[in-house]
Amino acid sequence: MPEFREKAETIFSRSTFVGDLGIRLRDAGPGWCESVLEIAPKHMQQDGYVHAGAQATIADHTAGGAAGTLAAEGDLVLTVEYKINFLRPALGERLLCRASVLRQGKTLHVAESEVYAERDGNRKLVAKAMVTLAIVPAASR
């Protein structure tokens, strides 16, 4: 499965925004991807919880990593729509995200992301997203 991880690594390494936030690839395989964010003060909102934007970013980008594992060499994977539900305030030492492709189409993939907050070794589901991604073939650009 190294080729799947390499595809996800390329997606993560090329996104400076995601890198600046501190989101890192944990692992990837065919149609799935996992990432992690070590929570720091810069990720918090005014009431001391992890900002919704940080949670949405990890959910979106990890879904892109999952879809990217199924894309052909040189194809782009671009989010065209997503919906996220924040289930509880996110507190902890880190956010963990796992995304899986639910439907692999010719031009669109649909993925689901689950975001967990981890504190003292305990994980709580804090957000869930559905992400639709366009597959843009290299030949069409």
Q: Please, could you describe this protein's structure?
A:
The chain is α+β, with helices and mostly antiparallel strands and 141 residues long. It has one domain: Hotdog Thioesterase (Thiol Ester Dehydrase, Chain A), CATH 3.10.129.10. Helix content is 25%, strand content 45%. The protein has helices at residues 2-13, 16-21, 52-68, and strands spanning 23-29, 32-38, 76-86, 94-104, 108-119, 122-136. Helix 1 (2-13) crosses helix 3. It is elongated and about 45 Å long. The mean pLDDT is 97.
Helix content: 10-25%
- Average pLDDT level: 97
Give the helix/strand class.
Answer: alpha+beta
Provide the CATH architecture: Roll
User: How much of the sequence is in beta strands?
Assistant: 35-45%
Per DSSP, the total helix count is: 3
What integer value in Å does the Rg equal? 15 Å
Number of strands: 6
Side by side, the strands of the main sheet go 1-2-4-5-6-3
Major pleated sheet? 6 strands, antiparallel
Shape: elongated
End-to-end distance: 28 Å
Please report the first level of CATH classification, the CATH class: Alpha Beta
CATH superfamily heading: Hotdog Thioesterase
In terms of per-residue confidence, which ranges show pLDDT below 50 for 5 or more consecutive residues?
A: none
